[in-house]
Amino acid sequence: MKIHEYQAKAVLASHGVAVPRGKVAYTLAEAVENAKELGLPVVVKAQIHAGGRGKGGGVKLARTVEDVESVAKAMLGMTLHTHQTGPEGRLVRRVLIEQGVDLDGAREFYLAVIVDRGHGGPVMMASAQGGMDIEEVAAKDPAAIVKEPIDARVGFQAFQARKLAFALGIPGPQVGAAVGFMQSLYKAFEATDCSLLEVNPLLMLKDGRLMALDAKVTFDDNALYRHPDLRELRDFDEEDPLEVEASKFNLNYIKLDGGTVGCMVNGAGLAMATMDIIKLAGGSPANFLDVGGGANAEQIRNAFRILLNDRDVKAVLINIFGGILRCDVLAEGVITAVKELSVAAPVVVRMKGNNEEKGKQMLRESGLNFLTADDMTEAAQQVVAAAKARA
Questions:
Q1: Does the N terminus or the C terminus of the chain have fewer Cβ atoms within 10 A?
Q2: pLDDT at 86
Q3: Which 8-state DSSP code applies to residue 111?
Q4: Which of 17-21, 96-100, 134-138, 290-294 has the lowest mean pLDDT?
């Protein structure tokens, strides 16, 4: 689950990480009031779940009340386009009014904690090239990024923080402060079950103080049951409506750009393989949809409805291995959904496993025009041909 910058900074501040003072505003009047309270100059920052806001005009300095009025008026309600929003952009519904920081003589760094699959645990990443897109830094100068693997059993140690501070070229008198900052950052990461915590830039002011000038936080969805307070930070307006709907039924759904083949699969590995074989057959998947191993007929029906609400879907491939989710339960849910929704799109079903023959019989006797396949290659070829015929 992603959250906004102002929310991320509140989480960091609660764990001892220094951040600029700021307040969120939903209206022009609130923006002006917040600026007066914080004291000018202030920075007006669009709050959307995407990076690159500054390049898209979503971060502006305001030195006077008139500037605040002008900038906030233009920003609230604008559609902001960045390299992460896609061509459709994101509507700005709120802005962060933040105290201005004197950048004279300041240095910028990059600092993040991520979950690294290769290491099998958290890793602290740092770079002296702060304020830049880390992807650009990694592509042009991989050696500029230093990493410190963390043993989750003992946490992030002071000696590891010192190694990173020295690698960044932080002056000796400020190393102690840098160690404290990094340890507080990891404390926030661990305490809130983050999957990503990024500070870019980490600012070292002329007087040696360290401050998170920007922050990005993503929480592990699987751990949110432990954090009811954090669940309240979710902004549904920033998420795809179909993904929001899927989450209500404990379905793992991700919309993909440009695809025409809707996929319903149980198991993430099988879902990935299904998308690969659709590409191999010359098609393009419209989504990732994992109904899970224990789905029931009701979940299957809702999954099907969500698939068909995507206007890009021209044909549907259902690829199920009948383990905990029996093939007859799948067939019941699919038949009910097709009847209720008056489905016009071709539906290809490939099922293997428990009660396979019973499930296939239910499909045959349903009176509906299902296409069936015995293997994944045949299923992919059928669904891609069907999708192209309706394109």
A1: C
A2: 80
A3: E
A4: 290-294
d(CA 383, CA 370): 11
Instruction: Find out whether 35 and 61 touch, Cβ atoms under 8 Å.
Output: no
Q: Check whether 119 has a pLDDT greater than 80.
A: yes
pLDDT value for 309:
87
198 is catalytic: yes
Q: Are 117 and 86 in contact (CB under 8 A)?
A: no
Q: Would you say 122 and 116 are in contact if contact means Cβ atoms under 8 Å apart?
A: yes
Do residues 335 and 300 lie in contact, with contact meaning Cβ atoms separated by under 8 Å? no
Which pair of tokens denotes residue 14?
Answer: 């609660």
- Closest alpha carbon to 334 in 295, 297, 306, 384: 297
| Contact assessment for residue 246 and residue 26, using Cβ atoms and an 8 Å cutoff | no
SS3 210: strand
> Of 148, 198, 332, 356, which one is the catalytic site residue?
198
pLDDT at position 242 is 87
pLDDT at residue 322 in the model: 80
Q: How far apart are the first and last CA of the chain?
A: 34
Phi-psi region of 131 (alpha: psi -120 to 50; beta: other; left: phi over 0): left
Encoded amino acid at 323, one letter: G
Averaged confidence pLDDT in the chain = 92
Q: Is 110 a catalytic residue?
A: yes
What tokens does 65 get? Answer: 């009340």
CA atoms within 13 A on the CB side of 7: 19
- In whole angstroms, give the CA distance from residue 370 to residue 300: 16
Q: How many residues can be counted in the chain?
A: 391
Query: Residue 91 — φ and ψ, nearest 5°?
Result: -75, 130
pLDDT at 196: 97
Q: Which of 270-274, 300-304, 351-355 has the lowest mean pLDDT?
A: 300-304
Q: Which residue of the set 5, 98, 110, 332 is catalytic?
A: 110
| DSSP secondary structure code for residue 96 in this structure | E
DSSP state of 236: G
Distance CA 297, CA 334 (A): 8
Token pair 């992030």: residue: 156
Q: Report the C-alpha gap between 29 and 18 in whole angstroms.
A: 28
> Which of the 8 DSSP states describes residue 308?
H
